[in-house]
Amino acid sequence: MGFPSSTPASPSPHRPLRVLVAEDEAVNRMTALALLRRAGHSVVTVEDGPSAVDAATGGEGGGFDVLLMDLGLPGFDGDEAVRRIRSHPNHNPRLRILMLTASATPDGLSRCQSCGADGVLTKPLQLEALEAALAGAPAVSDRPAPNGRPIDHAAIATMRGLLPADRVAALTAKTAVTLRTYHADLDSAWNEGDARQAGAMAHKIAGVSGQYGCVALRRAAQGLEAVLETQGLVGEATISARQSFDAAYGPALAYLDGVAAGG
Prior knowledge:
Elements: E1 18-22, H1 26-38, E2 42-46, H2 49-57, E3 66-70, H3 78-87, E4 96-101, H4 106-114, E5 119-122, H5 127-134, H6 153-162, H7 165-191, H8 195-211, H9 215-231, H10 236-260
Parallel strand pairs: 1-2, 1-3, 3-4, 4-5
Helix pairs in contact: 2-3, 7-8, 7-10, 8-9, 9-10
């Protein structure tokens, strides 16, 4: 998905770019770092909103060609960081800012579109979409689901084509650990009646799982996030969304464990 902007497109993708990645989720940050470096780009990563603003406005406007900005960041969110960068006296007017989000809610996408960014990449971050965005493509969208199957094996196949097998296994193992942690946190929030925190954990699960091809879990987590935002923890829609999420979670973890073990 993209939208108009007065900011010029990035330079030709045929030369290495200097890319700033603002992403608080360690697994997603490591994946973006590996893909970008393998493509020959220079990469700097930060983990929160204030650090993103500092990096993008330091020196000669930070010296970056492209900024990949996660919507949900500690300190302040990515959309607020973009506004501060664009209004900063030392901002680089040629910096192309692309938002990253796993959100399926209208509010999340609206925030991406209204903050002054040049476009939005929906998670999971796809190699083809990333390359097009770095080349200045005006619109980027999700890759369609693989014939309704719960796992998109092409995601891991792409990673294996770019990274050593042991690196892919290590990243996938970290992803499985991260998802188990987020699932436990979602359960805790649910049991405590905290719909907002449960939705936040569903959002994180959607962002992490999709990167590794767990499309059924990603969509179930997005659905759960959306219904928690509008209806809270009560009602048939919430119960149904939670059941769909639980049904997708086990197979996704089993798949990731298998990939981590070399399968």
